[in-house]
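User: Quick sanity check before I run a bigger batch. Here is a single chain. Can you write out its predicted 3D structure?
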Amino acid sequence: MNHKTFVLIGGGLLQLPLGNAATNSGYRIVVVDGNPECPGADAADTFYHCDISDPAAVVEVLRNHSEKPALCATSGTDFSDTVAAVNAHYSLPGILPGQAELLTDKLKMREHFQRHSLPQPAFISGGADLDPFFRDHPSPHGYVIKPVRNMGARGVLRIEHRQQLSYAREYAARYDKAGRTILEHFIPAHELSVDALVYKGRVTLTGVADRIIEIKDNHYFIENGHSMPSALPADIHRELLTLMQKTADSLSATNPYTGALKGDIRYTDNGQLIIGEIAGRLSGGFMSTHTYPEATGIDLMRLFIELLEGKEPNLPESSRQYRQVSIERSFTPEPGVLESLVIPPPPAKEVYRHVSGKAGDLMEPVRSNVGKLAHFVFSADTLTAAENSWTDFFSRIEYKTTLPKIPEKELAALARNRFNKEACRVCKVCDGKNCASGIPGMGGAGSMSSFRDNLESLSQFKILPRFLIGDKTSQTNTPRRNLFGHSPALPILIAPITGGATNMAGSITEWEYAMAVVSAAEKTGSLALLGEGAAPDKFQTALSALKIKPNGFPVFKPRSDDAAIEERMEAVRDSNISAWGMDIDAVGIATMNRRNLATQRKSAAQLSRYAELSGRPFFLKGILTIEDAALAADAGAGAIIVSNHGGRIFDGAPGAARVLQTIATYMSTHHPQVRILADGGIRSGADVFRMLALGAEFVLVGRPIAIAAVAAEEAGIISLLRQYHGELTHIMAVNGLTHYSEIRKDMLLQT
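Assistant: Done. Predicted structure follows.
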């Protein structure tokens, strides 16, 4: 063979078939990938470790190669701009930089298609003034916000209305290196995936598949597989060819487009083809590499290489290529630690499988096309036969996942790597003594004396063991107590923390944090309180998360703007939420002040009116005196939370443990109908015991939950809650206690 060099951008599973085809065509393979342990590293003749999202860096690293490349390509990745940079530097055939830029930058793509009158959703840059867009371009089916540069639907969210934009834009921006987003109409339709080869501007349509798209939790777009060929009639294939040809024509203004085009196309109920996205590559998702060859008998990788070598594809019309049906289906177990996994042997109709996980792995929630456990390809004479074979096979997959357990030290180590050091250093003990920040940030106000006193006041109470009262049991039998229609199994709830961008300095987004806490609450038998922060629309984060997983309550700021509070009460009234709260101690908090948003003390009459507007019971957080506790009861509060807001309001406030017993004793005598909760400085199950002994029925944990969420999101929070609960029940068992209500003040010694 006359060996030449073929540069393969990306050495992952979906790039290897292209590399193998190039090897079979007589090329020496150079693989470039940012992962030194990728499959292509071992398969390559030469491997270069380099970030393939940096075109200049890839060109520079290839300078070290002794031989000039003959061809450069990728498949299944959105790094066509890197391919184009190599092509331009070495004068290779294929996609060029200007074309690649239009096909990787989604905003430029939309603007380009708009100039060429190609059918697509209404759109706008996420950084623009969006109010006119929402006003002038209403969408009956909602909107999609996405990163300008992303892959695999990472960071893509569907939202229903304008008010959800605040958290959605923050979430999408996290997945774009420059923080850019694009907003467009969501158009429900039959989803199609289209592959095409383009030779000097002339399009040959190859694969057309029906995509199976799930909108999980009403927000996330997840492709669970595809069927090849599409069940749509042949005339739709011809319309697709026309659309892809128009797309190629629009890209050929300076130089005729040569290479691959991959289209995500929507076919609407009224017969319109709408461009979702176009990429300058062959498709991923096992379509170009597996289902198309199985369905047609055609080696698309070889055809692609021949096209780059200068040979025009000679294929029959797309709809006439297929000899059988081929389907790809993915499998993802429930989140948790995968304890066991049994996948049956391949049946006759299974032609390929890829399993990426094993027992012991942590299965995280899937929020995009990334992170699935396994993929399978089935082929048959008909779609029904292929699907029946898959359905039978799927029913025989056996697995078990359990709630994860990550030790506290490991959680802290993970959090130190992920927490922005300007907000939190993840100290060995989160006590405010060496805090990285004040407010905004995770710290306290002033000298942080109020923050520190939460821990110091708790530490003054020692737990007195009763070793002779009863034997230690392996498990306590604790009846559940009702709280606004919920019966949490744990007495440990999640305190309302907000400010992914401000208080946590971008270490986690508002939406990721909200979903982590409500999901963890659901799986542990806890409840999550979700704050709203200062931004006007941020309360929608809490309402949207609780709509998906109604395991908690929103907590609102005591704003001076009564209309803003009324808006929130109306939203609660229209929701599935059983109660709401107000952190009345947020009067004058710095995060509100820096936005020039006024707060005010509230009267019993105001609070009663809010409750009437909402149609729901309410609770007040931030009670430190008997007087405020009595006024809360007069206003109709169903519960109070004894708290100094984590020491974030002003210096000199007492730790909650100093006043909890006095308030609890008074309320049990004068207002026994009001539930007593408390937070502040809880760092262990022993601290939970202390708070319960001082009179709280439930306790709330704040900063440690935020640290656990940054460390490992839902899994981190679950692990922390389980640790605290385990420590608590151990102390109860040592003392012979079986009910939380049996924990009494005389079990503590104040020092």
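The first strand starts at residue 4 and ends at 9.

User: Great, the batch can go ahead then.
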